[in-house]
UniProtKB/TrEMBL annotation:
Pfam family, one: DUF7042
Family annotation (InterPro entries): DUF7042, DUF7043
Domain DUF7043 positions: 2-66
Domain DUF7042: 84-220
Protein name, UniProt field: Uncharacterized protein
Superkingdom: Eukaryota
GO biological process annotation, one example: autophagosome-lysosome fusion
Length: 231
């Protein structure tokens, strides 16, 4: 696929709308691409899934509908460390994982895979050792702690998103995850770089890109609830 920028349709501090010409084999057309600036070096992209012959039609509502188009999360090859949101100590409850398998926050040893297949972590500490790390503490003796580095967070329509990467992973494991924080009815979410956050929180984790309107039971790699247990 070959993509060439054709024109800029609109630009703000947080958003850039671009019409691009796409060529694949003998087929070509114009698409609309919207880039969203998130936190620092993190951006998100939405792209129309229909090609049009006239560039002026690429970003029209009948071609580009941001409500239904998925987001693609982009981050630099060597991501910088950023402060994690929701600093504090949390109790983990209601843990569920996707039946088909997925991300594991226990260690990568064969023993831990056998003995800790249910992802038996009980608590989460955010920013307690370093402001840009969060640690899952497991009840399994062979995998006491798994550490993630934070690379950027933002809020969109009342939901908070965090890009984080495991400090160690399998060669076939995801290089990064998007943690999606949703406040429950009794919580007041407090995003940002240093907030302690409300409690409780519902959290879902997906690999690579940050999905919207996610159903944790079917779409998330794993999902759980967090209750604040100290700062």
């Amino acid at each position: 696929m070959r993509l060439v920028c054709h024109s800029t349709e609109g630009s703000t501090e947080k958003q850039e709308i671009v019409v691009a010409h796409v060529t694949t084999g003998c087929q070509s057309g114009y698409v609309c691409m919207v880039f969203y600036r998130r936190d620092g070096h993190v951006i998100e992209l939405q792209q129309s899934n229909k090609w049009v012959r006239v560039p002026e039609e690429a970003c029209q509502p009948q071609t580009f509908n941001p409500v239904i188009l998925p987001y693609i999360t982009l981050i630099t090859a060597k991501p910088h460390l950023r402060p994690c949101p929701y600093l504090g100590r949390y109790i983990v409850t209601g843990l569920s994982t996707r039946p088909s398998g997925g991300a594991s926050v226990v260690s990568d040893t064969e023993t831990s895979i056998t003995q800790c297949s249910d992802l038996q972590f009980q608590s989460l500490t955010v920013g307690c050792t370093e402001v840009n790390t969060m640690q899952f503490h497991s009840s399994c003796s062979v995998a006491e702690t798994s550490t993630y580095s934070c690379h950027g967070s933002w809020e969109d329509n009342g939901t908070n998103y965090l890009i984080a990467s495991p400090t160690s992973r399998k060669s076939v494991g995801a290089r990064r995850f998007c943690f999606i924080y949703m406040a429950t009815d009794t919580a007041t979410a407090a995003g940002g770089d240093g907030g302690g956050g409300g409690s409780p929180l519902q959290v879902a984790s997906v690999a690579e890109s940050c999905k919207r309107n996610i159903n944790p039971a079917s779409s998330a790699e794993w999902a759980f609830n967090l209750t604040l247990n100290g700062t």
